[in-house]
Amino acid sequence: MTQLQHTPVLLSETTDLLQLEQGQTVLDVTLGLGGHAQKFAEIIGPTGLLIGIDADAENLRLAENRLEKTGPSKQYYHANFANLSALDLPLCDRIFADLGVSSPHFDDPERGFSFRTDAPLDLRYDRSQGRSAAQWIRSSSPEEIVKALRFYGELQQARRIGEAVSVAVPETTFALRDVVESVVGYRVKQVLPQVFQAFRITVNDELHALESFLDFSINHLSSEGILAVMSYHSLEDRMVKRKFKEISTPEIDSYTGGISKEAPFELLTKKPIRPGEKEQVQNPRSRSALLRAVRKAQ
């Protein structure tokens, strides 16, 4: 798979859920290679505004090229969606986030996202910011490493793996793989994705970024605006589900039992939308995707 062959996940379902119309202002905070945004641009047309944000400068450049000939006005920002409040953004009719790791991150060995090729252990979306995973491991205590593996990787053997990583201080993906294999043996292929997830979430501060994004978005939608979020693991999905439930639940009067204040949002997905069997076969990376959405009240 080359970079420009990246397949957007749940494309038609996302487009339908967002209820896009001509002339709308749409914010895509995880622009990636512009797969979803290209479809958004086609629908909102020349009177619309598409705002694209990505933490990866190279992804942003490729997306700009891809979207160059599409109709709407466009604004692009090289930024992490944790920092949206620092940007001068207009109120948006639709906001979308795809929290998955983009294909180029997996497919470019030098990014260190894949344990299938040997490369520097980096795992950052934005290599101009923060510390690589190897640097973080080198500067962290055994307890900090164990905590990351336990909470972000949800690993039962977090302590044994974390202590081994702390001693070995791996600098490459294969070195980390070998450390994990020394602890878990033949189960290494099942455990490695959780280990890489834990360190990726840590170095990118992903859950804090998601919390900041959700808080910003619910206050930055226009009347009847829609926020849609696609997550790929239980930690993210629980955060999205909890926030969406919180803002779509009316306040109840403790004396009368009636509604004292209507909810500011309407839940559009009682259960998350998942890829069908056909999409999962055609695009295996879509298998764990969970799409949820809310709509702001008038």
Q: How would you characterize the overall build of this protein?
A:
The protein is of the alpha/beta class and 298 residues long. The chain has two domains: 3-98 and 207-296, Rossmann fold (3-Layer(aba) Sandwich); 113-204, Orthogonal Bundle (DNA polymerase, domain 1), CATH 1.10.150. Helices cover 42% and strands 16% of the residues. It contains twelve helices and nine strands. It has helices at 11-18, 35-44, 57-67, 103-107, 133-139, 142-151, 158-168, 173-184, 188-204, 206-218, 234-247, 277-282; strands spanning 25-28, 49-54, 73-78, 92-98, 221-231, 251-252, 259-261, 265-267, 290-296. The protein has a seven-stranded mixed β-sheet, sandwiched between helices. It has a two-stranded antiparallel sheet with strand order 6-7. α2 links the parallel β1 and β2 (49-54). It is globular. The chain starts with 10 loop residues before the first helix and ends with a strand.
Strand content: 15-25%
CATH superfamily of the largest domain: Vaccinia Virus protein VP39
CATH class (first level) name of the largest domain: Alpha Beta
* Main β-sheet description: 7 strands, mixed
Number of strands: 9
Provide the gyration radius in Å: 20 Å
Contiguous uncertain segments of 5+ residues: none
Give the number of helices. Answer: 12
Coarse morphology: globular
Structural class: alpha/beta
Helix content: 40-55%
N- to C-terminal distance:
44 Å
CATH topology type of the largest domain: Rossmann fold
Structural domain tally: 2
- What is the mean pLDDT? 93
> What spatial order of strands do you see in the largest sheet?
3-2-1-4-5-9-8
Following the backbone from N to C, one meets helices and strands in this order, namely: HEHEHEEHHHHHHHEHEEEHE
At CATH level 2, the architecture of the largest domain is 3-Layer(aba) Sandwich
